[in-house]
Structure formats: C-alpha cells, structure tokens
From TrEMBL:
This is Toll/interleukin-1 receptor domain-containing protein. Residues 1-130 form the TIR domain. Signal peptide: none annotated. It holds the Pfam family TIR_2. The keyword Lyase does not apply. Keywords: Membrane, Receptor, Transmembrane, Transmembrane helix. The chain crosses the membrane at residues 158-177. It comes from Arenimonas terrae. It comes from the Bacteria. GO terms for biological process: signal transduction.
Amino acid sequence: MADVFVSYASADRDVAFRIVGYLEEQGIRCWVAPRDVGPGVEYGEAIIDAIGEARALVLVLSDQSNESQFVRKEVERAVSKTKPVLPVRIREVTPSGALEFYISSAQWVDAWKSPMEQHLLPLVAAIKAMGAPGSAPVRSVAPPLATPRAGARHGVSIGLALVAVAALGAAAALWFARAPAPAQAPEAEQRSVPAAAEPSSAELAEAAISAQEAPLPADAIENVEAATEAAAAAARSAPPAPAPAPAVTQVAPVPAGPSRSDVAFFTGTWCQPYNGLTIVYEVIRTGADTVLTRVDHPQAAPWDVPSRIVPVAGGFEMQPVDEPVAADNTARFEIVDDSMMKLVFANGAVEDGSILRMRCDGRKD
C-alpha cells in the first residue's frame, strides 16, 4: 500500500515526478500515474483503488492543475474517502473553483523556490507523522515565539515559555559520527617462480661429457645416462610446492551510533517547520547531561538556551538547569525514529504531538 497518491496536471509531469523521487528517497511510498497503473488494468479503476488505499493525497498545485478536470475529480474522491489533501504549490497561485472548496483549510507547502527539495521538509514531516502510531494531524505553524529580553543569560521567563519549549524541544539531534573507510592491510606479495624445464637424459649426458677435458669411456656414458634418468624420475615424483597463503584483509570494526537513551543522540542540528519557513536548533553538549541550544528563528535574532536532558520512556525531557524543575518549565519529546521527534508535553499541558523536529543540515531557506 502506498503512503500517498500524487495528483498532478500532465503539463507538470516533470516537476511531479521530481517530487515523487524526493519523497521516495525519504522512505515514503508514492502511487503516481501512469507509472503505477498495472498492465491490463482500467485506468480510472486503478486511480480510484489507489486513492482508497493511500493515507493521503499530495496535490501538485499550479495554473494547469487549477484548470484540470481530472485533478479536480481525484481531489474530490480523496475528500469523499476522508483522505487528507496536502497541496504543494509549484507556482505562486491560489486554488480556484472546486479546488478552493476542497482544500481551502488544508496545510500548504510552497515549493516554487529553488532548491525545491529543501522546501518539501514540512511535507515529509506531515506524511511521516501520519504513519506514526497514535499520531495527530500535523500543523506546520508553531506557536508565536517572542525574543528574550537583552542580557538574559539563564532560564526563560513565563512570558517566554513557548520560546523555551521550542528551543528545548529541538535541543536534540546527532548526525551519527561516521567511521572513516576501514584501512585495508596490504596484501602479501605473491611471487611466481617459473618452473624449470625438465632436461632430457641426452642433454644431461652431453653436458657432462663436454665438461671433461678427455672423452669418457662408453661405460661411463652409460652410467651418466642411468644417473640422469634416476634424477629426472625423482623430480617427477616429488610433491608440488605448497601455494602461498592468501593475504588476510584486516577490517576495522564500525562503531555503533549513540542509542536513543544517550544524551549524545540530541547533539547536532534539528529543524522545525514554521509558517512555510524553518526554525533551526544547533545543540552542543556541555556536560554529562546538559546541552546548550542556539535557536535560529527566521523572525528573530538568534539566542541560546541551556537545558538538562533526562531520558524517559520512549524519549527525553528537557529541563532547566538554573531553576527548580516544574511542570510548566519542562518539555517532553517522544522519539518517532532516528530522524524525527514530536512534542508531547509542554507548559504543564499535554500536546497533541503535531509539532515535529527533524534532523537537518541547518539551512533555513
């Protein structure tokens, strides 16, 4: 079963398949026509079945898809089957007509800027969250974040609680340290020794005779021939020399990455979708159980937040390091997989898990 059905206008085929390729690189299974229409299957029937089996429909939105009756029908069938519709705008357009009716309240992804793949991060997060057990609908808009007052060095005030939660929540990711390519031991040099040609008895006899200053008697020649034949027979019956032992390649063991209960799991860079932009969190380990998070918000100057990382069942808690721990200054995150976490508790209240953090390279645009 596919994770998503991809709907697009035929004029946008190249861009649609580029989106499909990126999603499939992220481990998301896509159904897209005509690639996935089986031989001998009626085209319309295949589309209806694929929409029914997919978790969601990804709509490639452009001027052409706005006017396509086939795209409109596919979206209508997805809505009728209560499938989420995730529009991806590849042009700066708004849906018109029936499309506006069906997707006016849907979460949008704007991907017309280059590089397009970088702006598909919220789409990947939304689709992966749908596949997580007990997941809630994903919202890409995080709560408004206030900039902390100048000179604040420790903690976060109650008025900035949401900022602290966002920073603490992303205080977490390690691009696993990759071991260098294992060094290979040089192979033992194998030297081939050409086998000497076996001389004939006549050649040996002739060499022996020519080495003497005076000719040998006939019986001496006969003795030489007999000795030569005996030596040749002994050489033929001797066992062959053993072949050189093959070289043994030494392979260095590859170290395993940090476990999900290790604070090292959280060091590195995390990204959070925010109003079509991205909040970036760079996390540096400062102690056995403490980290410092640099929050790079697209609408505020960067700031630092210290926190303590405490492993809990299925994830971690982010606690303050310079004030007493309480429910309203603690955030809890549940690990979805090695590249994603979701917020499940903050500000003393249970969250729906729709705020996600994903591993990234630190870029915002």
